[in-house]
Amino acid sequence: MQRMSQLFTKTRREPPKDEQSRNAELLIQAGFLHKEMAGVYTYLPLGLRVFKKIEHIIREEMNNIGGQEVLLTTLQDPTLWQKSGRWDDAVVDNWFKSKLASGGEVGIANTHEEPLTALLTHFVSSYKDLPLYIYQFQTKFRNELRAKSGIMRTREFVMKDLYSFSRSEEEFKQFYEQCAEAYMKIFQRVGLGDITYRTCAAGGSFTTGFTDEFQTLNKAGEDTIYVDKEKKIAINKEIYTDENLSKLGLRKDALVEEKSIEVGNIFPLGMKYAEVMGLHFRDEGGNEKPVIMGSYGIGLGRLLGTTVEVFADDKGIVWPASIAPYDAHMVVLDGKDEEAKEIIQNMERGGVEVLYDDRPDVSAGEKFADADLIGIPWRIVVSKRTVEKGVVELRNRSDGEVNMLSGSEALLRVMNSNA
Known about the structure:
This protein has 12 helices and 22 strands. By secondary structure, it is of the alpha+beta class. It folds into 2 domains: 22-311, Bira Bifunctional Protein, Domain 2 (BirA Bifunctional Protein, domain 2, 2-Layer Sandwich), CATH 3.30.930.10; 326-418, Anticodon-binding domain (Rossmann fold, 3-Layer(aba) Sandwich). The longest helix is centred in the middle third of the chain and has 21 residues, at 169-189. The mean pLDDT is 94.
């Protein structure tokens, strides 16, 4: 239980004036984030709880496909990036770099293909050492010319990046598809599965040829995609040509143009980084071969911001149950604190996490408005009226349905919704 009277953050009556995006406006107004500067946000207690739940879901799905978690360094040795040709600002133009006091330069990580590939040269030599699927949750820094879209495009952010190391193209493709399926499970678990599409896209600076994005339909998105809703796939506008449509087996008359937010991507990397870093293995015949790689990313803040954009209404945030900061928001009125505490204790014994609005000098209207703004799935009201009737008022945030139930019935309703 977290008492709101002891929560150091506060809600705001009005959204911040310097934000254009709905996600940042609401997250700051509701006390989930604090803006440090353009493109840089601090996660406050409520925001961090959501962030950690997203992280937990992603970690479970990465472990389920054989991922091993590490934490690589943020400071980067330029010599590794010079080998791949990506230290040059003309190639990758969003580096943050710094001068060392002892002389020379150091990079501040924006991705980790080079350092992880170099690291594995110390551990991989035989076909018996492969395949490997290594991932991390790590802060990245990208020198965006214009940080925008709230927490969906920032200069500092945490990414889950996984890298696969395979012995053959066939082995790589098998894992690539496994990871694509795992991504769809992640988006389903955070509540976005029905409106998220695997989308064919260009490779950019990381690779050549086609790559895959995962795009969530929303008008706030920066991307335009063409969706085949029956096949559950899409193509990015950047590569929308007759030739590419033919390659993908898509028909123009079956596609619908939509605005979307990119919530994840997966890249075939081939042998590019393995060859320049010297990551080879000996096969069963003793022949030396380069490792075949792939890269798989999800920005946690971007995914969090996307859920806000998709589900928010005119009253505030509406969190999916799987990533809400708490399961229930207890509002006590008329001084009925002891009765509220007893219900909270029962709920916590049942595994329900509760945010308790025990603030004594705040009106009922303000408490209800804050509950809507914060967006926890269930609001429970304990008041003089409900105590006299031996019930609590249980309200669902997403559809507004209100029921008068006993404390045990309310507990079961909340628990069943989380199952």
